[in-house]
Structures are given as C-alpha cells and as structure tokens.
Amino acid sequence: MAEVVLFHHALGLTPGVAEFAQGWRDEGHVVHVPDLYEGRTFSDLDEAVEFVDATGMEHWIAVAAAIGAEHPTTTAFAGFSLGSVCAQFVAPSAPGARAALLFHGGLSLATMELAWPEGLRLQVHVAEADPWVEMDQAQSLVESVDGAELFLYPGSGHLFADASWGDYDEESARLLNERALALLASL
Asked: Which CATH architecture has domain 3-186?
C-alpha cells in the first residue's frame, strides 16, 4: 500500500480527478487529493491557465510544498498537468517519497532547477501529440533520471485520463492507471 498526494490540473478538482483518486483507494492505497483552488473549478482550459498564470507558478509550487509538508508519510506524489509540476517539485524534497507520477506533463530538471535524488522513481505519461506538453522537456527529464519511464499514448488529448473532460480516452486512461498502479504496488 502506498500513501499518495495527487494534485489536480488547472481546471481544478474535477469529478474525473476525484474518481481517479477513488480508484486508487479502491486498490488499497491512501490517497490525498488537496483542492488547490478551494472549491473553484473551470470548464475552459484557456481560462484555467490564465488563472494559474495570473497567480504565478511560484505560488502553486509553494502551496504544493506546504501540502507535502502536511503529509510526511507520503510515499508517492502524483499530478495531472499543473499538478504534475507540483508533484515533480515536491517529491524530490519530501523525506519519505519514493516515487513521482506525472500525468500530462513533465519539465526538464534544468527548467525546474532541481536535482533528482537517487532512488526516487519516476513515471511520465503524456499523449504523443499533446499541444500543451513540450515533448523535449519530458524526454530530457526522463533521460536525466536513472530508471525513469516515459509512456506515450496515442492522440493529442491533454487530459486524457480525466473522465470528466472532453479529452478523455478510456483505453489510454486504463493503461495509464495500470502502469501507475504497478509502480505504486512496488513501493
């Protein structure tokens, strides 16, 4: 059993993110899903990104770091898009973290100005033609971390694992979930 902090994407804590987390709970994992927006959600991705940008990424990383500190026994950090940046930033400094699972995003270690600790496992899951993901960033990240895994999925849907969003792809979401659960089970 893993204890996971799962960060939502820029649209907020959508029913699809909550459902995804519940699936992991049903598998026996302890999953915390903090609401970074305190109840606010968006139905337009561009509007959501404007909201995130207006506050600044530094703010969201600070919020994520504070949440990480509230969960000292967490063994894995995961996130969707915006949440993947949060997970990528928090996991390397969390004392008990053993894995980071990044869905729909991943930035190079140079961009994040981070060192990746030895033994912290990493999975990155993105759609092959996702217009929101800079593939060279995700590939650089994976190439910089020993044993990291990059999983590519067909199509261009950004939030393909969120069942409440229009990009949802049932087959890709199922495969992402299987791969992520396999990593969690190995911790």
From this structure: 3-Layer(aba) Sandwich (3.40)
